[in-house]
Amino acid sequence: MSTPRVSIVMPAYNCAWCIDRAIDSVMAQTFTDFELIVVDDGSSDDTPALLAARGDAIRVIRQANAGMSAARNTGIAAARGDCIAFLDSDDWWRPAKLAQQVALLDAEPDIGFCSSATELQSPDGDVVGTWGCPAQADDLVARMLGGHSAVAGGASSVMVRRELLARAGVFDARLRGAEDTDQWVRLAAAARYACLPDAQVVVTRNPGSVSRNREAMRRGALDCLDKNRALLPADRRGAYWRACRASVLADYAKWRYRDGDRAAALRDLAQAFALAPLARGRLLASLALAMLTGRAV
């Protein structure tokens, strides 16, 4: 069996409603030297039957439900390609996605991973926005930890050299929020990143998805900041890092307040003020006053 150039890893969990579209978009790629590995993460709907109907066109690995990161890591461990691309089951690719990214990595060997601009759609297929390339691709670690979406398209847009994953490490399955950010931070600390401006990826924005679970995202965002502090440049590990952590606490304090938990929101603001009284103090004080007086934030 020949070794494919690209291994595509697709986690799948109860996604019978959309997985055929995702797989069809892979099979329609103009670049064809790939393998598609679908990791069925304990699905209880018709997903297994739909995967079985694909026969030998795809590799299917089934496991007990362990979450998105663990499923991706299972696929990475089984991958044989020099490069690995990820595709979530509710997203899909336009036909030139793989070809453009392989050509980029071939032309610039110092690029370790890349993504592309992305179109955002609702589950009904309505275009709801775009996710463009970052205005600048330097100082990525600091900007990612500062809350900026530096990797356009998220996981469904990324292609990474397998050797870079071996050096930087795979997805942290202990995190239940911000797993992607944590992964991109570690990749960016180890290699150069590039973004293709042509939108070859379509990401589904689903209000019920894991990415909309605010409490998981809050804990994950804080854990990501804590574990990756040492990857920042030395001059960013003090006041800058504390301001980043304060910003995360302030952002989620607003959500907690809107959800009716004013006490938890105020505790978050107090922690944020202790971290960055000079950089964030005025904003935090105005938020606390609004919450104490019952105003909208």
Q: Can you count the helices?
A: 11
Overall shape: globular
Nearest-integer average pLDDT: 94
Low-confidence stretches: none
Q: Structural class, from helix and strand content? A: alpha/beta
CATH architecture of the largest domain: Alpha-Beta Complex
* H-E string: EHEHEHEEHEEHEHHEHHHH
CATH class category name of the largest domain = Alpha Beta
> What is the CA-based Rg, rounded?
20 Å
- Please give the number of β-strands: 9
CATH superfamily of the largest domain: Spore Coat Polysaccharide Biosynthesis Protein SpsA, Chain A
Biggest sheet details: 9 strands, mixed
CATH fold description of the largest domain: Spore Coat Polysaccharide Biosynthesis Protein SpsA, Chain A
Q: Kindly report how far apart the N and C termini lie.
A: 59 Å
β-sheet strand percentage: 15-25%
Helix content: 40-55%
Number of domains: 2
Would you write up a description of this structure?
With 297 residues, this protein is α/β, with parallel strands linked by helices. The chain has eleven helices and nine strands. It has two domains: 6-211, Spore Coat Polysaccharide Biosynthesis Protein SpsA, Chain A, CATH 3.90.550; 238-292. Strands 1, 2, 3, 4, 5, 6, 7, 8 and 9 form a nine-stranded mixed β-sheet that branches. The mean pLDDT is 94.
Give a summary of the structure in a few sentences.
42% of the residues lie in helices and 20% in strands. It is an alpha/beta fold and 297 residues long.
